[in-house]
């Protein structure tokens, strides 16, 4: 069957979509999604029905479904804001509302709107693999101990499930991946057969008391190795170990895939909204400086010009405002937090199950004297994606601002267990240091601040915090040196600016800040203009 709407033709037999005579590359699932909506255009199709038809009932996140819908809309010249062809009906489902004409295809016939074949025509170009598309191949059992197969297969299956929860990530189902078990691996061929950009393969080896897991991420098209990691763990509880390995892998892989997509986007002559989003997220992951934040905002702005309702770009813009307001980069924090909250509320009205949006909304609430609500948002984010290590970190910060600093270290240790090399870890370490200062454990605070600086020497506030703790211990020469290091990175930092940024009205928290102000004065941090 062939469907024609506006200047598009949709051929279900050839699985081709054309705009005029120009072929449009579509991922298989996006094609299936469009076909199902067009075939059932007389009625509203529920979310569950659409998932059952296109994904064979496999559990996928709301974000993943929204991403595929946005891709489908973009392909046929529609947007989430305009909804000229695909309409979303809140709490009901979706409907294709375009004016469609059906045209059967007699054998050998060429219909109006078809690309006309000539003797010079080249074979059609293969459909491009979806961005952030990956297959987790069954891990190899080194040593061949059959008793380890259940554990090794469990790691593969759990990792496939956890990765599928990540917003925008397309993961090949377990059954397809396991069809390659115990077969020679040709990553280029697998990439073509499954239409994915990336392949994750691994191997597990068990000794008497030790387990080693090696993993590597490969670009299917080129067979280039993009990233590798090794886990060495004592054999105590295999299932706890499996959870830890899977959580670390899922979190790290998300960052690595985004970085790989950002590099691809840099080479694109005509980047689309998602290309620009990947580059913006990559800038945010580099660190907290006005330079990186300005670059990130520019990428997200450009993405929103192309697609005003692009969820990833909206969350990215909110994240930029949150970081600026929470990192003492401005004296006027309230407008940034308000802008971020408005954008995140909009995102959650479109995609209620967007884990990262819930996480960032929780962060805004923690920093605006609503820490209890912030904890609830972070917990909601973890319910949607258990591998969001950052959520544990910000729950720890919330406990600190609520005067429950004795609980903070445990929260941050959980975050570090899931993601020991996290790009945000240095910020968590500063928060633990402050919780120690609140508990009058100055030496422990110094140790945490030093860890933060070792993780990222370009975070100015860690230097000022270290200076305050050292001054409280009487180490004034070291404290003065720490202040100078911080002022090189942030010349405008003052005690007045820090005092104006109190995140909570909790008495215990405010009393702890008074000790920090005094430590900063002793260390020589500029007071700033008062009044």
Strand proportion, as a percent range, falls in 5-15%
CATH superfamily of the domain at 133-266: ABC-type transport auxiliary lipoprotein component
Can you name the CATH architecture of the domain at 133-266?
A: 3-Layer(aba) Sandwich
State the shape: globular
CATH domain topology of the domain at 133-266: Rossmann fold
Question: How helix-rich are the residues, as a percent range?
Answer: 40-55%
- The overall pLDDT average reads 81
Helix and strand content put the structural class at alpha+beta
- The total count of strands amounts to 13
Overview of this protein structure:
With about 525 residues, the chain is of the alpha+beta class. Among the domains are: about 1-105, Arc Repressor Mutant, subunit A (Orthogonal Bundle), CATH 1.10.10; about 135-265, Rossmann fold (3-Layer(aba) Sandwich). Helix content is about 55%, strand content about 10%. It has 21 helices and 13 strands. It has helices spanning about 30-40, 45-55, 60-75, 150-165, 175-180, 185-195, 240-265, 275-285, 290-305, 310-325, 335-350, 355-365, 370-385, 390-400, 410-420, 425-440, 440-455, 460-470, 475-490, 495-500, 505-525; strands spanning about 1-5, 10, 15-20, 20-25, 85-90, 95, 100-105, 135, 140, 170, 200-205, 210-220, 225-235. The strands form 3 sheets. Strands 8, 9, 10, 11, 12 and 13 form a 6-stranded mixed beta sheet that branches. Strand 2 and strand 3 form a beta hairpin. Helix 14 (about 390-400) runs antiparallel to helix 15.
